[in-house]
Design a protein that fits this description.
Elements (H helix, E strand, L loop, with lengths): L1 H19 L3 E4 L3 E4 L5 E5 L1 H7 L2 E4 L4 E11 L6 E6 L6 H8 L6 E11 L4 E4 L2 E5 L1
Parallel strand pairs: 3-9
Antiparallel strand pairs: 1-4, 2-3, 5-6, 5-7, 7-8, 7-9
Length: 132
């Protein structure tokens, strides 16, 4: 009986974790695809990233981003971050970093929290943005 209870608990937790990970985010206007591992991959130019400067949930009606961590990996240079953000919009410091980036540089958005339409806070899959 204990074994059955353990298996049921495991299946329940796995299904909850899978449910929480169904949310994807991107940058509005960026091309978007999903890797085999489930990470979102977006491509956008520096000016596009600066003009949009906001994470959105896919599909849009699913909820809104409430926080994330952003890291930066230049094509040539040192890794920066993570920078913690408590909104969907990029901070002034993040925009400064984006303003200095070059084609081929990458930004990583992780530990993304989404408020669903029913008010629950869930995790979204990570997003990698490559600058064109």
């Amino acid at each position: 009986m204990k074994k059955l209870a353990f298996i049921c608990s495991f299946v329940c937790l796995a299904s909850i974790a899978g449910f929480a990970q169904k949310y994807h985010v991107s940058i509005e206007g960026a091309s978007y695809q999903e890797s085999k591992e489930g990470t979102g991959i977006a491509s956008i130019g520096r000016s596009g990233l600066l003009s949009k400067a906001r994470l959105i949930v896919i599909p849009l009606a699913a909820g809104t981003v409430v926080s994330y961590d952003m890291s930066y990996l230049p094509k040539k240079g040192e890794y920066g971050g993570p920078y913690e953000n408590k909104t969907a919009d990029m901070t002034a410091a993040e925009k400064t970093i984006v303003g200095q980036c070059k084609p081929g540089d990458r930004f990583f958005f992780e530990d993304i929290k989404v408020r669903t339409t029913d008010g629950a806070i869930v995790d979204a899959k990570p997003l990698m943005v490559q600058i064109q």
